[in-house]
Write a structure and sequence with these properties.
- The complex is a heterodimer of chains A (516) and B (486).
- Chain A is α/β, with parallel strands linked by helices and 516 residues long.
- In chain A, 50% of the residues lie in helices and 12% in strands.
- Chain A has three domains: 29-52 and 335-482, Nitrogenase molybdenum iron protein domain (Rossmann fold, 3-Layer(aba) Sandwich), CATH 3.40.50; 58-201, Nitrogenase molybdenum iron protein domain (Rossmann fold), CATH 3.40.50; 206-249 and 265-329, Nitrogenase molybdenum iron protein domain (Rossmann fold, 3-Layer(aba) Sandwich).
- In chain A, α2 crosses α8 and α5 (115-129) crosses α7.
- Chain B contains 20 helices and 14 strands.
- Chain B is α/β, with parallel strands linked by helices.
- Chain B has three domains: 4-34 and 318-417 and 449-482, Nitrogenase molybdenum iron protein domain (Rossmann fold), CATH 3.40.50; 44-180, Nitrogenase molybdenum iron protein domain (Rossmann fold), CATH 3.40.50.1980; 192-302, Rossmann fold.
- The longest helix of chain B has 29 residues, at 289-317.
- Chain B has helices at 44-52, 66-70, 96-101, 104-118, 129-134, 138-149, 165-180, 204-215, 229-234, 246-260, 272-286, 289-317, 329-341, 356-365, 378-388, 400-405, 423-438, 441-447, 456-471, 479-482; strands at 16-18, 58-63, 90-91, 122-127, 152-156, 192-198, 218-224, 240-243, 264-266, 321-326, 345-351, 371-374, 392-395, 409-412.
- Classes of the chains: A alpha/beta (516), B alpha/beta (486).
- The interface between A and B is large, with 93 and 87 residues.
- β1 of chain A pairs antiparallel with β3 of chain B, so a sheet runs across the interface.
Chain lengths: 516, 486
């Protein structure tokens, strides 16, 4: 929570404080600029702005995480718009109804605090949805007016009216980070809440004796989650996915629609996470203080593995090896076969994939994973870009690039205006990322594979599989086919135009004399 | 928690109505959304953005944290015949320290940067929620920037919490008036008009421009579809304004009447009948006999070409029932009529921001028993779609998946669509879209779905209630007699 000078505070003090702070602020921006100039290249063309944003805000990530919790409802504490926009974005991507409440702060709530609104909101949504879990996320507005949601939620619980319902406050100020931090923070908050619930300390039940592992997976489609789940099950072990969006956000059609999803990880399961053999966190780029796996390790001694997203053979190997190590088991035959098939596919593709000059953008963990697949298949990585801020992103990518003796532009905290320029400069022939890149596709006609979130101008984003050996191969095939199509499309015409001797060149060379 | 879940939440009872023509009914509308019920509404900023963003050669800066800009970047289908600058999303991307120390410095620098790099004709600055709280003096910054750069820099007061989408429309109208300036143009261009409340989604404004120019009338400015800063300034010399999207533009039309002596008329180019009526209205108000002649030729040609095709679809659609949930009242009214033209009856109608007068129109235009909802939510929609047995839902992106989960067909009537729905061409597109969705073979497959574990008794009671619902009477009224604003 940050302290804010409210508009009604004494003007003179406000001014004084502001003057003081701008001094500090100015200094620090100078420093940042110095830093930027040191760099080989700057992350953004515009200094004071994001032009065509390449990131979203924290409550988006929070809302997504809560969608993977069974019988959970979300209320976003703030003004109506934030919640509606987030719902719209998710609905367009997943093609599923996305019900998220808002505390609908008005002018009055903004001036006098939004506690009353939030309390009414929680009551209404409980009456309408009958959830077991209620996640209370915040917005920029709620944080700026200084609402203490911990206290408000405590007061709501103390009324005794919501017996049996877990109401969990999760601070996600939109400006505090991107959707990625919001996602991980929310997972962490859910774990922290449920493992402390007193009734859950029944350590030695039959359930907890059968070994299981926790998996925290970011940027995965519903199909990716199902695929990783299948891979873990091949080891003969159960995995708890925190969260588990696989069925909640890709629900089959039935003739009885249930607006509150019964899919996802249950609260009983959430309370069990401390008894897991280990936590495997896939997507390792958020700062350690946002990491749920590290939280469980530090507080409860559950061993943490932080690994890249299992995209491509090397990254997937990391996961499989970690699983074998944690469970002390051999790698299942089926996975060996799948790995072999992937290698076979990589060989089939390698001469074609080598023609790829690739740009990848979007969420940092996803960009990193895809970059791995791009590099190991002999494509040229020209640009890797993310809107989030992460030192690790740059460091990890640079060492990867060194390994393949490649040089690529790496941008963090960037925007699409800059991404577009770099793509033009570097002669990229295939880009991969969320639908926001369609602007570049439309204007500059760069071939484009939509992957990540949000994909709102194609269908099926929730069913796309790019993770695991199987998914990596499907994805590699898709990439290769794009490159092949580029080669085949207009092939005859292009060859004719480039190589067929043109009439003029048949003319005898004119000497100066003849010309006269 | 085994009690039955609520369908209509506390404090929402007055926003739900079942049309009973014998009674003197009035729905509660124009209220603030009830917290926690999952309203489908957006915010003030969204409203302002809808109206102003199509202005093509202006730079649109969203002053606030990143999300507000990120979620609204280039999501609408407005087209430009000129600059594409409006499609670029500029955000000051306020972060934690800006929230604490104020965003003014950043905003000033942002304007400087944009002006140097993009040379926009004007700059609009949208304030979002936090800006309204941290107290940045956007007005003063805009003033100073105008002097510095010699272009108009116009603040839009659109903090999300300060009302509803409607207030955003109003804020946008203020910005447009600010741009037009106080002076009046004494001599108006004869036979000229402005078209208010069309945003040139999928070329809709161009279609209407083509009609008007064929007739020989001068369409000065569309507000704001494909508008430029100069064209907005030139709007003051038009003889009349015609208003389509009443919810967003009536305020501007009234102000323009007061300030510049330009009278206005309501028109509507959705559906063949309405298109003809609207064109006639315009021609008779500002045209000569020659114009009338040309109008008649145009209409005769178009009607002869399009009407039979629409009729062919009508035969496949007659008797279906539709539920409408859209943003404003104008849209709902024109949809009720368009569906009636296709022989489809409206059994549920609701809006996010409709006015009292518009709801009164709904009651007149729809039959007995039609459900009328203001600022509704998924819970109520689900309940009433099932209860009314609607075959089609009309709505936006958020409503679409709900329709599909319920096995109901769907019409996208939002700002993202990529096919025109206005004029003669649009009427045909509309009929085709309705047919494509409601008569899709997909629904036949879906209908045969039987979950393996459904017990016999359950399915029996279910089919019984279905039977009962089928018998529920709905009046069919002839809209051509009762309805119409024209
Ligand atoms: S912060 Fe305010 S202006 Fe921005 S999306 Fe949310 S409600 Fe709208
Ligand atoms: S950035 Fe902040 S204000 Fe904007 S949508 Fe996200 S939470 Fe809302």
């Amino acid at each position: 929570m940050i302290k804010v000078i409210k508009p009604d505070t004494d003007n003179a003090t406000k001014k004084a404080v502001k003057a003081l702070m701008t001094e500090i602020h100015r200094d620090d921006s100078k420093d940042r600029n110095k830093d930027r100039n040191k760099d080989r290249n700057k992350d953004r063309n515009y200094v004071n702005m994001q032009v065509n944003p390449c990131k979203m805000c924290m409550p988006m990530g929070g809302a997504l995480a809560l969608k993977g919790v069974k019988n959970a409802m979300t209320i976003i504490h703030g003004s109506q718009g934030c919640s509606t926009y987030i719902r719209r974005h998710m609905a367009a991507h997943y093609n599923e109804p996305i019900d998220i409440a808002s505390s609908s702060l008005s002018e009055e709530g903004t001036v006098y605090g939004g506690s009353k609104n939030l309390k009414i909101g929680i009551r209404n949504l409980v009456n309408m949805y009958q959830p077991e879990v209620v996640g209370v996320l915040t917005t920029c507005l709620a944080e700026t007016i200084g609402d203490d949601i911990e206290r408000i939620v405590r007061e709501v619980r103390d009324t005794g009216e919501f017996e049996g319902i877990d109401i969990i406050p999760i601070p996600t100020p939109g400006y505090g980070g991107s959707q990625t931090e919001g996602y991980f923070d929310t997972i962490k908050a859910l774990m922290a809440y449920f493992v402390k619930k007193p009734i859950q300390v029944q350590k030695e039940t039959e359930e907890t004796k059968t070994p299981f592992i926790n998996i925290v997976l970011s940027d995965a489609t519903c199909e990716d989650v199902r695929e990783i789940k299948r891979m873990v099950e091949l080891f003969g072990v159960k995995a708890l996915f925190i969260p588990d969006i696989s069925d909640a956000l890709d629900a089959p059609f039935t003739n009885h629609y249930n607006k509150l999803s019964e899919e996802g990880i249950s609260r009983e399961e959430l309370a069990k996470v401390i008894y897991a053999k280990a936590t495997i966190e896939l997507g390792d780029l958020v700062a350690p203080n946002h990491s749920p796996a590290l939280f469980l390790e530090e507080e409860y001694g559950v061993k943490a593995y932080r690994l890249p997203l299992p995209i491509g053979i090397n990254n997937t190997d990391c996961l499989v090896k970690a699983l074998a190590e944690v469970l002390d088991k051999d790698i299942p035959k089926a996975l060996e076969v799948e790995r072999g098939r992937l290698m076979d596919g990589m060989i089939d593709a390698h001469k074609h994939s080598a023609t790829g000059d690739i740009a990848v953008f979007g969420d940092m963990n996803l960009v990193m994973g895809i970059a791995g697949l791009v590099l190991e298949n002999g494509m040229q990585l020209k640009l890797a870009a993310t809107g989030s801020m992460s030192k690790r992103f740059k460091e990890q990518l640079e060492s990867k690039l060194d390994q393949y003796q490649q040089k690529a532009e790496i941008l963090q905290d960037t925007d699409y205006e800059t991404i577009r320029e770099v793509i033009q400069l570097k002669g990229v022939n295939l880009m991969m990322g969320p639908s926001d890149g369609k602007f570049i596709w439309e204007k500059d006609h760069v071939d484009f594979i939509r992957v990540g979130f949000p994909v709102h101008d194609h269908v099926g984003a929730q069913r796309k599989n790019i993770m695991g050996y199987k998914g990596s191969l499907i994805f590699l095939d898709e990439i290769t086919n794009h490159l092949l199509d580029q080669k085949h499309k207009g092939y005859r015409e292009r060859m004719y135009q480039t190589y067929y001797p043109k009439k003029e060149s048949h003319k005898p060379i004119q000497t100066d004399e003849a010309a006269r | 928690m085994n009690q039955k879940s609520t369908i209509i939440a506390d404090h929402r009872e007055k926003q739900v109505l079942v049309n009973d023509k014998q009674k003197n009914q009035a729905i509660a509308c124009d209220t603030h959304s009830v917290s926690g019920v999952v309203s489908q509404r957006a915010c003030v900023y969204c409203g302002a953005r809808v109206v102003l963003n199509p202005i093509t050669d202006a730079a649109h800066i969203v002053h606030g944290p990143i999300g507000c800009a990120s979620y609204t970047w280039d999501i609408r289908g407005s087209l430009s015949s000129d600059s594409e600058l409006f499609r670029t999303s500029f955000s000051t991307d306020l972060r934690e320290h800006d929230i604490i120390f104020g965003g003014e410095k950043k905003l000033i620098a942002a304007i400087d940067e944009i002006v140097i790099r993009e040379k926009p004709k004007a700059v609009f600055i949208y304030s979002t929620c936090v800006v309204g709280v941290i107290g940045d003096d956007v007005k003063a910054i805009a003033k100073k920037a105008e002097i510095k750069h010699g272009i108009r820099v116009i603040p839009v007061h659109s903090s999300g919490f300060s009302g509803s989408k409607k207030d955003g429309y109003k804020a946008a109208c203020h910005a447009i008036l600010d741009l037009m300036g106080p002076e009046k143009v004494e001599v108006k261009t004869p036979h000229s008009l402005n078209f208010l409340g069309d945003f040139n989604l999928a070329a809709e404004a161009w279609i209407i421009r083509d009609y008007l120019e064929t007739i020989g009338l001068e369409l000065k400015t569309v507000i704001t579809g494909d508008a430029t800063i100069d064209s907005l300034r030139a709007a003051k010399s038009a003889s009349i304004n015609v208003v389509q999207c009443a919810g967003s533009m009536t305020y501007l039309a009234k102000q323009m009447k007061m300030n510049y002596d330009i009278p206005f008329e309501n028109i509507r180019f959705f559906g063949i009948k309405d298109t003809i009526r609207s064109l006639r209205k315009i021609v008779f108000s500002i045209g000569t006999e020659e114009h009338v002649k040309r109008f008649e030729t145009l209409v005769a040609q178009k009607e002869a070409y399009y009407q039979p095709m629409v009729e062919a679809y009508k035969r496949k659609l007659i008797g279906k029932k539709v539920a409408l949930y859209v943003g404003g009242g104008f849209k709902a009214i024109s949809l009720i009529e368009q569906f009636a033209d296709l022989g489809i009856q409206t059994v549920l109608v609701g809006t996010q921001t409709g006015s009292k007068e518009e709801y009164e129109q709904f009651r007149k235009l729809t039959g007995e028993g039609t459900v009328i909802l203001d600022d509704t939510n998924p819970t109520e929609l689900e309940h009433f779609i099932k209860e009314t047995g609607a075959h089609i839902l009309v709505g936006g992106v958020k409503e679409r998946p709900l329709a599909y989960k319920l096995g109901v067909s769907f019409i996208d009537h939002n700002h993202e669509r990529k096919h025109p729905l206005c004029g003669f061409e649009g009427a045909l597109n509309f009929a085709m879209e309705v047919d494509a969705t409601v008569n899709s073979p997909v629904w036949d497959i879906v209908k045969t779905f039987k979950p393996n574990n459904e017990t016999k008794s359950e399915s029996k009671t279910k089919s019984k209630t279905k039977q009962a619902k089928k018998e529920k009477p709905f009046d069919v009224i002839d809209l051509t007699i009762e309805g119409g604003i024209l």
